[in-house]
Structure prediction request, 449 residues.
Amino acid sequence: MFESLTDKLQSIFERIRGRGRLDEKTVDEVLREIRLALLEADVNFRVVKEFIARVREQAVGEEVMKSLTPDQQVIRIVRDELIALLGGEAEPIHWASQPPTVFMLCGLQGSGKTTTAAKLARWLRSQGRNPLLVAADLQRPAAIKQLEVLGQQVGLPVFTPAQGGTADAVQTAQRAVEYARANGLDVAVLDTAGRLQVNEALMAELEQIKTALQPQEILLVVDATTGQEAVNVAQAFHERLGLTGVILTKMDGDARGGAALSLKAVIGKPVRFIGTGERVDALEPFHPDRIASRILGMGDVLSLIERVEQTMQEEEARRLEKKMREARLDFEDLLQQIRQIQRMGPFEQLLKLLPGYQQLRSQLGEVGVDERALKRAEAIILSMTPKERRHPEILDYSRKLRIARGSGTKLEEVNALVRQLMEMRRLMKQLAKQEEQMRRRKWTPFGRR
Ligand SMILES: Nc1nc2c(ncn2[C@@H]2O[C@H](COP(=O)(O)OP(=O)(O)O)[C@@H](O)[C@H]2O)c(=O)[nH]1
Ligand SMILES: [Mg+2]
Prediction:
């Protein structure tokens, strides 16, 4: 991703590093090289021209020249302009005031819509949402199956035309949204049909879906490796549909980055996500500032850290979910959670990571966090032996008394904590049973019966 541009820019900056004051001639020379590097990266030529003009204007400004070293100055100016080019501040998602929020993905065939729908839904879940995938691509029957397989892979429900009892894309989408609303799913991600080229039939269908659903987000999925062609496609879609943003796929196969660097300037809409591989976890929110640093070879440590954290949380959530389903939750788990909460902040944030959270929440009512109670719970658990934590059922009167003394709490408090764990286990068992029933009743695609 952006490798060739990064290489060129770095060698340009390398040469001016350590020089004294930059005269106008040197600045011009550097700008000429940057211009060439951008054009070779397949950035739209008009965009390049404006970019260079803006950098020049700032780089020759007298007072700026004196404060920093020349290479620092130029890098900073180029970096700031790159950030602006890439879209400025990362744009937040437009959530619906009345769920579900509808994400409509559109684009040409093969751009990566279906794959990206699954990736996006998976990402949304990692943000504490409860997404529904919707198969509204009725051009190719295989597309529905593909989405079903992906849905299974990421563990998220898929609404199919068969389930909606219709062979119409608009009606399928409408029924999916009704279904989401009725089932507490707060986001619907629509996979729509594509064509080989932009054409009237495609646009008409997409317009109908747009009119019927009024999606909060209309995102164009477009293949980054096609460079300026991606920008042309985006322009055509934007004119007809009014996009809210773009998802650039196959960035892993694009060393140049021309599309990413031109889109905002040309269509006025930002890149919101990038696809960086075929796997379902290969999707990243697009942060212009981080990408600019990456392009300038400063690395993107923040995204990396976020990713590692996210993976760790997801793994932990999966492990916990399994234990919950089997109603095996014990005090070791509770202790780990308490520690995480203390490290991470709000209890709810963490709970939201757990699948099935919505149902759990409606059964438990509002979950309030009392920091002091949390501390006491931690002390109680720490006074238990490892065996007691794993097997709370062995906690008899004398053990509880010992624990209360050891932790400086009251016997009633120990009793209450043990009761809460048992109650949670009971709820989990019940929840698992309900879910199993729901799966049997609702999630059997009619087509397969
Ligand atoms: N390398 C790579 N391949 C991708 C990416 N996104 C999608 N693909 C691949 O592109 C092909 C077409 O994807 P698909 O989702 O079926 O496209 P659709 O026709 O727009 O629905 C599939 O082989 C995907 O695995 C990406 O970010 N990187
Ligand atoms: Mg598809």
Observations:
- The first strand starts at residue 101 and ends at 106.
